[in-house]
Structures are given as structure tokens and as C-alpha cells.
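Contributing: when you submit paired examples, paste them exactly as shown. First protein:
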Amino acid sequence: MKALKPLIILFTLCCAATNISAQHSYNLNNTAQFKAYQDSLLRISDDIYNATNNEDQSFANAKFIKTLVAALKTPSSFNFPFDSLKRISILKSPDNSLRIFSWQLPLSDGTYRFFGSVQIATKDGELKMFPLIDGTSNIKDINLITDHKNWYGARYYDIIPVKGNGKQPFYILLGWKGNNAKSSKKVIEILSFDKLNQPIFGKDIVDGVKGQAIKNRVVFEYNKLNSMTLALDKSVGMIVFDHLAPLSPEMEGNFEFYASDLSFDAYKLVGGRLKLVENVELKNEPSNNDEYYIDPKDKQIKATKKF
């Protein structure tokens, strides 16, 4: 765990609130340079994947961060997809205004550390980049609104822009969070920006059933060996998810014994708010994102399928 602190410092120094002037056209002038960076990142990601201890893994991850930041600082980087990097998640928003890099570092004790960056393309061609510093261990209240320096880390696999009513757009993020050797987590996160265009995580738009408090984010926790659906279902226009329940009544509140009860609930976006809809009937198959339930490095553990 001690080796992770220098990584946080390195990431912050490399890309903290970086501002670079660049024109964001789709004509890349630095394609060869980006491909070289991508090849280097692929080799380093193999080193991370094949590391046999936390120290070697952290060392390789620090090298990966330094190389990625150097690549992103190169003019026109926003338009290079880096699509050969399969071991990290790279999401570009449908409105083409930002993209998010995120990945996890599995630790020997079964927990995880998350890393990432928000890269923003502004209308005037200025490129802004913010490091995402995992503050999960310091966040005791999952309803806490945080900034990029105290991030409730996750590996994101979907981004949903929300616009309307003349207000600044915000983004709903769906992510896999991992947790420990016994349980996994998934999260519905809300990303917005303050008046200084700094990223903010968490927003009071999530409504539960009548009588429940409004939430700033939603976190699901369930048994490590079970998969969980959490996906945008475009056919019904809702974020659909498994209803989780304890395997037996006496296990209530002990989330390592939670799994799907084979029913589904959903959040429907209404007037810029997420409204809970219970007992949703689904006609389509669960998403491939169900597999984001465990560290992708550990291929020996298979999901328990529900269908």
C-alpha cells in the first residue's frame, strides 16, 4: 500500500489541471507519434498484468501513467482513440466534449486501487486534463460530493450525457468498482462541472422510493462470484439493474451474501432526475457489461449466470 502514495503524487504532478492549446480537428498530424506511444503503453500494460507482487505492479503502473500523460499532452491527442489499449477503459462522451480514462490496480489482499483522468476538449480548442485520485479509503459517506482529487474510484464502461432546460450538461457514468476478496461493487456516478469548469463527482438527482432520502450516487454491493446487470437499456430508455437481495433473511446487511433475486429495477431520467422504477419487465438479454464484476486479470473465477 505504501508504494501507491508516490503514484498519486506522480499522477498529480504529471497532469494536474493541465491546460494545453491545441486545435481539435479530425486530421491527426501526429499519428506516428501516437502509435509509438500506444505501443509503449501496450508493453507497459503487459508488465502490470504479469507483475507478481504489489511493488513491481506499482512500478509498472507509475511508468504507464507517465507515458499516458505524455501522450495526452501531445497536440490533437483528444482525437486519437488509443483503441488498442484493452486493459483500460476509454470512454468518449457522445457529445464529443470529453473522455474518461479509468483502470484498476488489483492488490494482493483482494482490494483495488483505481486510476484515471478526465480529458476535456473545449470549443476554443483548449485541451484540459484532470487526474482522478482515488480517495475511496477516505470516503466514509458514499453520498459525499467530491472533486477529482478525492474520487470515488471506478472503472467506467458507459457514459450518458444529460442536457436540457438551458442548464450545463452533466454525465451519468456506469462503473465497476471491485471491492475486496468477498464482494464486488458497481456504481452509478454523476459527473458535472463547477463554475470554474472543475470536475465534480456526485449530484443530488437520484430519487428513491417514497420516503427515502435523495442520493448523490448509487452504489451496489454483491457476492464476488455473482454477476450483476447495470446497463442503459435503450429499448425502454432506462438504466436497468438487478434487484439485489440477501441469500437468506439473517444475512440482511451483509453484502458478501447478496445476489440477484431474478427481478429488475431501473432508473428513468425524468426532468433531469433519476426516478426509481421497480419490477421492470425486460425483453432483451443482459448486457455484456455484466462481466465487469471482478478484476479482469483473474480469469479463473467465472460469473454465476442468472439466465
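Second protein:
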Amino acid sequence: MNAIIHSGHSGLEGLQYSTCTVPGAVQDHVVIELRAAGLNHRDLFIMSDRTSQDTSLIPGSDGAGIVVEVGEGVQHISVGDEVIIHPTLGWEHTADVPVVPGIVGGPSDGTLAQYIALPASNVLPKPTHLSWIEAGVLSLSALTAYRALFTRGGLKAGEHLLIPGIGGGVATYALLMALAAGAKVTVTSRSEVKRAEALRLGAYQALDSHADWKSTMNSDEPVDIILDSIGQAMFPKYESVIRPGGRIVMFGASSGDDLHVPIRSIFFPQISLIGTSMGSREEFMQMLEWVEKHEIRPVVDSIYPLQNTTQAFERLEKGEQFGNIAITME
């Protein structure tokens, strides 16, 4: 089969379009012929941390396709089923939070290939209203957004959500899901184009990331929840716009792991700092039901054939995209 293989170097330099053996369906596993896959910033982080000493890896966590082989012990999945991949490995129940979630595409081989073998528990029916491209980019980012907003953030209709750094997959899903839930959503971006696109999708306000948010935002509409994937670079601005008793849900650290914040700015206004990462199989099923109920469709930024995956990653690395970057196997 054709696949994108990472080996020999860190970062994008280690990517190769090559061939490898089609995997087989062992006990309790299925083999999927992938129709489409999606890219995530996680892929870039994984590749940047790898060295020439690491074994080769097929990256990618998102994907959708058709079941072509079923292993012994598999029930309720048949050859020919149209399916979508749940990317979190071994996390069945929401209450059983792992120390670090296992994820398809590192350390196990991922979805940037024509075929993938996975545990049957990581395979669910593809939402019928989505195309192959839309289903192929859904899984990881939509699951992360769903858990961050609802399981951990407790978002309710009428609340005011702030999404700093609109444009990436999780942020765009969060915007669409929050609007469907009846929330008011403010976003920020350095890009005028991305701010305009967010407003087109229904955002209430779109602020320049470097502006004075407090003076720009209506003073009588403080923020109830902030969805933070940036960390230190933006964190000092949150204090000026979040209401007392508000929640900051953190799922990323694109500006680095170190966070320096005055403790009093947290305990006097009684701000809740909430961590989240990925999601369980239960939450993945809930997310799919939510997406189907509200007929949410992913925002697809661009589509690349498998052999041009390196160029697709270059676009992601530069932060040029709005929404999801898709890879097609055809």
C-alpha cells in the first residue's frame, strides 16, 4: 500500500511517500481501506520530537473509510461498513481518565496510508450526512472540542465563550458546536481574513489578538468560558475579560509549557482552571450524535492527495489554514 512514513529525521524532513505492507486483522481488530484523513497540530509535535533512532511511523489520527477485513472476535462490524475512526486508544469510559491518552498515529501507526488496522472498539459508523472528506477530518479535533466545551467546560445556552486563536480544527469545531448549543461566541485572531470568516460562520465578535480586548469587548458582556490552546502568550489578557467565577478550559500550549500567573488573580475572582485532553469512546459516540443532530459539517480548508502530504503539513505549520486540511487516498 502507499503511505506517508516518517523516519530518519525530525520534523517534516523525515516525511516520505512510500510503500509498505497492508496490515492484517488480528484478534478483535478490523482493517479499513481509508478514503480520507485529516492533519492535526499533534502530528507536527510528534514528528518534531522524533529522532533518527526512532523506528518508522505512519502519522495521522483522523480518518474514515470502508471495512475490508474483520478479525476473530469482532461483532457488530462487517466487511463493507462505512466507518469513522475514534483516535483515542484504550479509553472506554469517560470517568476513567488516563494519565496520558494513547492516540492513533503515535506511537501506533496512523491514518496517512491507504489501509489501517485498528481495535474494533475504535471504529464507529460514519455520520451519514458527511462526505468522505468531511468524515475524514472530524475525529480528533471534534472530540477534543466536544469534551472541552461540554464534559469539562459545562457550556450552557446563553453563556459567552471566548476562543483565542480561531482558525485551527479544534477552534472551528468549538465555534460551530457552541453556536449550536445556543452560546454567544467571541473569537480572536491576528488575521483579518480569519476574523471575517469566523463572523461569517456566526461568531458574535472577532477581535484582533493584539488589541485591548477589554476596551473592544462590550463591558456588560464578560466572558463565562475561555477555551485556551495557547497558554502564556495570551493568558495575561484573560483576566481583563473573564467574569468572576468563570472557567478557563486548557487543552494546548502552543506558546510553551511554562505559565506564570499571579495566584491572587485566580483565587480572588474564583476562576476555575480546567485541564482537558482528547476524550473517551463514550464521548466520541456523544460527539457523533451531536454532530448528526445539529448537522454540523467540518470547515474544510484544503484537500491534498496522499503523495502531497508534505505540502499539506507545510500549510499547517505556517498556520495559514482556516479549518481542517484533508488528505484523500484516491
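If you have annotations for the second protein, write them as plain sentences, like these:
Residues 245 and 270 are 5 Å apart (CA to CA).
The longest strand covers residues 29-38.
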